[in-house]
Structures are given as structure tokens and as C-alpha cells.
């Protein structure tokens, strides 16, 4: 398992940041498809090789220009500079409003960096995300998820990196957005050494509102879920973690 404190002075420089990501060779898409057909969701461990997962983590943990995403009176996105420039009292007021509203309605708070918002290839200065954008919209991955979901109509994947810190959360939603033509959602977890009691769980609800299933953010694992189905990300605890890193998005039709 990855130790976040490995030597970046040598480790990260040995990686080919813009080299293509590839599926690990052990995956059986047909077997995954059988499991997905039963529940409309599946957890797939060890999506990449260990080296590929490490270089993606390195990019997310140390070189991603995160923005604060607030799901509060509609999505509100703030750069770190914009947030830091606010008076402390204003920041506290916004946090308090989000927490209070979260008791009665759909709310969310986390860090985000959108790099393929509509499936276009990322052309920024983070080579690992350039390579990941190519992978997510390349034939190997798209054929892989088309087989698993039995959805040949999938044309492309959008993508954003996300980071949930202590106190961050995302309330129950079902991903329906007719204009976006979403077929399935995915979450690529790149979080080392996470424990379930730290929160940040991807949880699914049954018709009675009970948690039917919940997945811990697992290192180098892909979660796929059919749209629509109600799910949420539980609040991250104030102890014992360095943040829940992932790349998330939707598999969409044109």
C-alpha cells in the first residue's frame, strides 16, 4: 500500500507523468457485467498498476490547484485565492450557512478541479491529468465500461478531481440531469490507507431510506453506478486522515 510520505525527490521524477494510463491486465469485463446487471453498481479494485496509481496520487496530492465547491443555493465554485481574500468572518458565515442548510436540504462541500468537463481532452500543465483524460476517453476504457454497463451508447467521459477534507460531504442525489445525457457515474478512488470510520463513504439508499450498501474509499479502485440511483458521500471525520482523493464523473451520450 502506498505510503504518502515516500520520497518525492526521487519517486515522482522517476514517473513518466504524461505516459498513457492503462488498465491492469487482470480485469474481466464480462464478469463485472454480470455483477453490475444485478444491482446497477460495482466496485472494481486495482484498476491500474501500482506505479500508475502512485503517479496519479502524486498529481492530486501535490500539484492540483483545488477550488472550493459549495452546493449551496446552486453550485458555487471559488478559487483558493478568492476564498483566502474573504474576511474571516465572511468565511465563517458561509460555513455556518452551509452546515445549517445541510440539516434540511441538499447541500455539499468539497474541493474540486474540473479538467474534462464535457469530455474534451485536458490541455493544462498537469501531465498526469492530460494522460488520464486521454485514458478516460480512449477506446480501452470506453469499451471496458460499455461492456460492464451493457451501454454501447456511451460516447465519452467527463471528469473532475475531488478532495474531501474533514467536515466535507455531499448529500443524497441521483445524478439525473437530462441535458447531460448521463448513462452511469464513476468514482476512481486514489486514497491511500483509508479507514471506514473516517467517513467519506459512498453510500447507497434503498426505497425505505436505509443504507443498502456503502463503499470505503479504497486505494486504486473504480466504482461504477447506473444513473439514476440515490447515493451520498458521508461527512469526513475530523481525525485520522489526510483527505479523500478521487477522480469522478459521468459516462455520457452525445
Write up what this structure looks like.
With 254 residues, this protein is α+β, with helices and mostly antiparallel strands. The protein has a single domain (29-252), classed as 4-Layer Sandwich (Double-stranded beta-helix), CATH 3.60.130. The protein is built from six helices and 13 strands. The chain has helices spanning 29-39, 50-62, 80-85, 88-101, 127-136, 139-149, and strands spanning 41-44, 67-71, 75-79, 108-116, 156-157, 159-164, 169-173, 182-189, 202-205, 211-215, 221-226, 231-233, 244-252. Strands 1, 2, 3, 4, 5, 6, 7, 8, 9, 10, 11, 12 and 13 form a 13-stranded antiparallel sheet that branches. Helix 1 (29-39) packs across helix 6 (139-149). The longest helix has 14 residues, at 88-101. It is globular and about 55 Å long. It starts with 28 loop residues before the first helix and ends with a strand.
